[in-house]
Design a protein that fits this description.
3 domains, six-stranded antiparallel sheet, 12 helices, 35% helix
Length: 362
């Protein structure tokens, strides 16, 4: 809230009544500091700033705070000795993909003798800002929010993209894939997004060269399969930290508010699928055995990572439990309150420790 000499955009004096979305650390050269008090916010809630910092020098910086990010990115800087220079306006072309190419950097990763590209991203699953609207509208529950947020530490960022391993590309918090033969989880996700939100799909994907066919095959400027895989890895060398004509716009697409929402909805759908799974050799669902947020988040985490292993791994943990607790009711719905806390914790400790994951760090 501005007080005293409020200006058109920004205030030299203010009382903080909301969340700091840009700056917040005084004036200076750091990426969370600036001196200029004018900025521009686009329709995707990205914040652009032309700033002269530190004060009384000739260095100007052009910064951007991507939506939901807590720190700026330096796009470019320049120096001039013109004392009268005053920069206040930022022009952004919403149809130009060049910003996405230049603003998203990729590091080189060596995989089986071939370098590819990786962008870790910045938007954590736990930082998703749309939960309140989903809960208030009845499209999600507080329990679903707690479970999905609880597993966030083991998942990728909502804006992560990589193209270096055996698949063509993997993207988003679930690291859904584009496969050589088509029909990968990311291809299905983008196709569903196309059907659900065609206007956003055209703006975010097609205008920047990406498209998906009704057969769930994704392409970039006509390239698919092994040709696309090779193209995305061209010019990747050790120590490189560069741009990607194809992958830069993909980062922008999946980090948009519209596609972030799609990712969260897919997590909710996946949670429902997991809770209906019946472990091998048993008659009750995972939801019957795991009532706690931790238990359901642990099963969801494995299903994102290696879905085929969930039934067997939970079954193994249950068999181990019943060998030690022969008198425990076989129907988990008959466990009394005192039993459930103890029983579920014992089963979960076994399952969490021994579940099979494709990434050993998880």
């Amino acid at each position: 809230m501005c007080r005293r000499n409020g200006k058109k955009v920004g205030c030299p004096f203010y009382e903080q009544t909301g969340q700091v979305v840009a700056g917040g650390n005084g004036g200076g050269p750091a990426l969370n500091q600036f001196s200029t008090d004018r900025f521009y916010v686009d329709d995707s809630q990205n914040i652009y700033l032309l700033d002269q910092s530190p004060p009384n020098t000739c260095e100007w910086r052009f910064l951007v705070w991507p939506a939901n990010s807590s720190q700026a990115r330096l796009i470019t800087n320049f120096c001039t000795n013109e004392a009268s220079l005053s920069l206040h306006d930022v022009l952004v072309s919403p149809d130009d993909c060049s910003f996405c190419i230049s603003n998203n950097r990729f590091t080189a990763v060596l995989y089986k003798g071939v370098y590819g590209l990786q962008h870790n991203g910045e938007i954590k699953l736990s930082d998703y800002t749309g939960w309140l609207d989903l809960v208030n509208s009845g499209k999600a529950t507080k329990d679903e929010k707690a479970i999905i947020s609880g597993m966030a530490v083991n998942e990728g960022n909502l804006d992560s993209v990589q193209a270096y391993d055996s698949v063509i590309v993997s993207a988003g918090a679930m690291q859904k894939i584009v496969s050589i033969s088509g029909g990968g989880e990311f291809e299905v996700q983008v196709y569903e997004f196309q059907q659900e939100n065609p206007q956003a799909y055209n703006k975010l994907f097609e205008k920047c060269g990406w498209s998906v066919s009704p057969r769930k095959i994704i392409s970039f400027k006509g390239k698919t399969g092994s040709i696309l895989k090779k193209y995305l890895r061209e010019d990747s060398t050790k120590g490189s930290n560069g741009e990607s004509e194809a992958l830069g716009p993909l980062v922008c697409a999946i980090s948009s508010p519209e596609f972030q929402l799609k990712q969260i909805k897919d997590f909710i759908t996946r949670l429902h699928i997991v809770l209906r799974i019946i472990p091998d050799g048993f008659n009750y669902t995972i939801a019957d055995y795991f009532k706690s947020h931790l238990g359901q988040a642990t099963a969801l985490d494995q299903h994102v990572n290696l879905p085929a292993a969930v039934k067997n791994n939970v079954s193994t943990a249950l068999n181990n439990f019943y060998k030690k607790n022969a008198n425990a009711p076989k129907n988990p719905n008959n466990w009394i309150v005192e039993q459930r806390s103890t029983y579920e914790r014992e089963i979960l400790e076994d399952y969490g420790l021994h579940r099979t994951m494709t990434d050993p760090e998880k």
